């Protein structure tokens, strides 16, 4: 593997001779850190950052994944002002992107003016897919599987007695015969829908898929290959809706009418153009993913499901749309949200447990409804910014603070340095380094006047290098 440059402008070489490290998993966490530190020539500070203890204890992280060497933290904030189905929520959101929390909090505030969000979720059905090859006559195989529906459901339930005791269990069987992609036999798939209650359900459903496969083989006379859930959880949709009084959308010089028109135009653009729809949906996921992450859920599954759902018509489309209805701007969103509030990571990650507690320990359906509302809020805030003075002003203002910190600004100078680089339209590491030297130089000169001392400012902006 070749050496790569640091991304922070330092140009310091960092690399590893070989990524092949047999037995790495057998080392203790400290041994792994030491090994990585040697291989990558980590500085003392870098090693210390791997040891930094946040909400997730290292011992827990070590049990969660293989080859653990530390934890990586991202800010956990609260999306404020949410009124969802008449209930107040401060929504925990784990996200590194500046402005997301401010944006959703703004949009939630605007939505409150007309009662906030209404949101709901389907029953929590996840779907197992069982692929059968060499099944012979597709019609006959389909018939035999559907005739055995009750037997298949009973077998699936027998694999999860405690789920059944909690009110969940297998609900339906479906057979799909899909046109051959390559001129060979058509693709034969059995779907088994399972109500997973408050679990995310991946493990439950995968056990079902594997457990019923022999029966499916016996019924079809074919050979089962894949047995796995689908992340296109389209039996597990969540929806949210809000109405914003047009006057609430006014922004500085722009009238509410004008801003609403811009948001509606943005929605039309996303409807018409998959290139725009992708970015539109990214703005939605800016709100959804942080909730998914904060609550210890699988955001890759949610992302996969959301985008597959967005493309369900054959053309990639927006997950949320906006239209004007009389004196209101009306927004709606619908997307699959496979979220759990019990089991898995949730049981072991203290921050995820806390996030759920902050949400009132919701059911999985309620959590999905909250995440959908957060996504709609995030979308609205982005479209409003885009419809007025663009995304950069607010976004870069916050980003500037991260850049100032990266350039080594001490906490009490971060805001001043950030303001200077925004003003100079130079929100870069070098710009912040120069601004910091100026600010620190002025501060030192002032101290000199008062104390008569001199200062070595060589370290300023060098980030300790
Ligand atoms: C940036 O993270 C998200 C936006 O690009 C979303 C959008 O364009 O709608 C601002």
If you had to describe this structure to a student in words, what would you say it looks like?
With 465 residues, the chain is α+β, with helices and mostly antiparallel strands. It has helices at residues 29-40, 44-51, 58-64, 100-112, 138-147, 149-158, 161-165, 202-220, 256-272, 274-294, 299-310, 344-348, 350-358, 364-387, 392-406, 414-423, 429-451, and strands at 4-5, 13-14, 76-84, 87-94, 117-121, 125-133, 169-178, 187-195, 223-229, 237-245, 320-325, 328-336. The strands form 4 sheets. A 4-stranded antiparallel β-sheet has the order 5-10-12-11. A 4-stranded antiparallel β-sheet has the order 7-8-6-9. Helix 15 crosses helix 17 and helix 16 (414-423) crosses helix 17 (429-451). It is globular. 39% of the residues are buried. The model is unreliable at 1-14 and 452-465 (pLDDT under 50).
């Amino acid at each position: 593997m070749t050496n790569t440059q640091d991304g922070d402008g330092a140009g310091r070489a960092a690399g590893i001779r070989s990524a092949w490290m047999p037995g790495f998993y057998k080392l203790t966490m400290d041994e792994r850190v030491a090994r990585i530190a040697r291989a990558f020539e980590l500085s003392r500070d870098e090693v210390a950052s791997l040891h930094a203890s946040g909400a997730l204890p290292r011992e827990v992280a070590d049990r969660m994944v293989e080859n653990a060497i530390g934890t990586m933290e991202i800010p956990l904030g609260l999306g404020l002002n949410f009124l969802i189905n008449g209930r107040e929520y401060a929504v925990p959101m784990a996200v590194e992107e500046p402005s997301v929390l401010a944006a959703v909090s703004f949009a939630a505030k605007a939505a409150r003016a007309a009662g906030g969000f209404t949101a709901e979720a389907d029953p929590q059905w996840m779907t197992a897919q069982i692929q059968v090859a060499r099944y012979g006559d597709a019609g006959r195989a389909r018939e035999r599987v559907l005739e055995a529906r009750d037997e298949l459901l009973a077998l699936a339930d027998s694999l999860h007695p405690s789920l059944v005791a909690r009110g969940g269990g297998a609900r339906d069987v479906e057979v799909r015969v899909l046109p051959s992609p390559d001129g060979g036999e058509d693709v034969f798939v059995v779907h088994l829908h399972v109500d997973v209650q408050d679990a995310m359900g991946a493990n439950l459903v995968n056990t079902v898929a594997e457990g019923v496969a022999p029966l499916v083989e016996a019924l079809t006379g074919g050979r089962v290959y894949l047995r796995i859930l689908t992340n296109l959880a389209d039996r597990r949709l969540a929806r949210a809706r809000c109405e914003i009084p047009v006057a609430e959308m006014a922004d500085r010089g722009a009238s509410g009418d004008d801003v609403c028109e811009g948001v509606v135009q943005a929605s039309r653009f996303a409807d018409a153009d998959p290139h725009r729809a992708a970015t539109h949906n990214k703005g939605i996921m800016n709100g959804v993913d942080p909730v998914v992450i904060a609550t210890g859920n699988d955001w890759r599954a949610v992302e996969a499901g959301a985008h597959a759902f967005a493309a369900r018509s054959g053309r990639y489309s927006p997950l949320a749309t906006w239209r004007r209805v009389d004196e209101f701007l009306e927004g709606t969103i619908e997307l699959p949200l496979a979220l759990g509030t019990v089991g898995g990571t949730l049981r072991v990650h203290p921050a995820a447990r806390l996030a759920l507690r902050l949400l009132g320990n919701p059911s999985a359906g309620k959590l999905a409804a909250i995440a959908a509302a957060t996504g709609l809020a995030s979308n609205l805030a982005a479209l409003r910014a885009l419809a007025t003075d663009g995304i950069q002003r607010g976004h870069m203002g916050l980003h500037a603070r991260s850049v100032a910190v990266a350039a080594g600004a001490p906490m009490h100078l971060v805001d001043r340095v950030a303001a200077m680089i925004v003003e100079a339209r130079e929100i870069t590491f070098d710009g912040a380094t120069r601004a910091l030297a100026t600010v620190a130089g002025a501060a030192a000169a002032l101290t000199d006047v008062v104390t008569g001392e001199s200062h070595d400012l060589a370290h300023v902006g060098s980030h300790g290098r």
